[in-house]
Amino acid sequence: MTVAASPSPVVRAVVCFIAAIGFAFDTYELLMLPLIVRPALAELAGAMPGTPEFERWVAALFFVPALAGGVFGLLGGWMSDVWGRRRVLTFSILLYAFSALAAGFSTSPEMLLFFRTTTFVGVCVEFVAATAWLAELFSEAKTRERVLGYTQAFASVGGIMVTAVYALAVEYSGMLPQLFDERNDAWRYTLISGVIPALPLILVRPFLPESPLWLANREAIRAKRPKLRELFAPQLRRTTIISTLLMACGYAIAFGALQHTPRIVPDLPEIKAATADMPVPQRKQAEQRAAAEVNGFQEIGGLVGRILLAVLAVRIVSRRALLWLFQFPALLIIPLVYLYPARDNFELLKWGVFVAGILTVGQFSFWGNYLPRAFPTRLRGAGESFAANIGGRVLGTSAALVTSFLTVHMPGQSTALAAAAVAGTVCLLGVVLTAWLPEPEGDALPE
Known about the structure:
CATH architecture: Up-down Bundle
Number of domains: 1
Number of strands: 0
CATH topology: Growth Hormone, Chain: A
Shape: globular
Number of helices: 19
């Protein structure tokens, strides 16, 4: 084992800045889809909301990229163990930034699906490499918890940013050059804006250090390359299985309920009444503004949830108690949000999804803090990746399929009722599974 020099405080600050950009644009890229899926499918596929064709494309756009992202994200976690955190992190951000740019020029739903898939692959790899990288740069436990907590809070800043960009695109896209003749380009400009994170990365990339802990173990890791089956060795089996299932529950709340909210909004009685007499272009614009407004409340709630997690992570010793602090209220509140205000009360829905954002996104930040302490250095990327990508991105995002399937069988083809059923089920499952979540041993990262 070689000994690597610890980066200076200035270099650590730069690393935190780049990681925060990565977390912000992870969410920025992912939360584009709920905002743009309705106008994009109307233009590219001619599919109207509530029709089987529309629901099939919605399910495909939510799940296929997540499935591919989970598989390639798992490979990315293994690559970060073998090749290093920095290299994989940089590649992943460039991949999803330029994929988002290409998606803005889609001419068919199949083309949009392809570039949303490559975008998702980059996002899935980035999360794992970034959390391992940050955790290994900070050896002092409370500092590490704060750094992971507060840099992940920028993920919700990304959600707020994409909501604002979409609202601006809806308002002003008519003043910008048309990408295609006689088309609504707001959704296209929103996708194209995803290239932004690549710009500071290109400038800063040469100065980023590698993880000193990974460098110290590099020769041993490459001599005995990590294997996925090691995650199921007796000492890690319970951690791997329970964290994977719990991440699936958290993502299932988001993909089975929260991410459907923007397309629920135009069907609310208040929105229908307010737009009934408008010409079609103005009506669509008003619906998109209302959806962006509700999404903004949700993302501000997510930011509050991440900050709350960062504050509580250094004060609550038990990881189970910390997770339950978000799960129990979620079990009571989130299904009710979709049973009631999501069906008939626009103003109350905004505050309902604000609270739902706190309770759901706070759980996402929990895993960024927990997983680096759960796996040793040579398996840290692979372990985090398995839980985040197989659990969260593959199993969890499949809830979008369930919600889309249930929608066409609900009274009035109600997406809100389907979302309530999915959210209630996975919230209950999460509360139960947390009782088996292993508590990390000590404050130091396992080597």
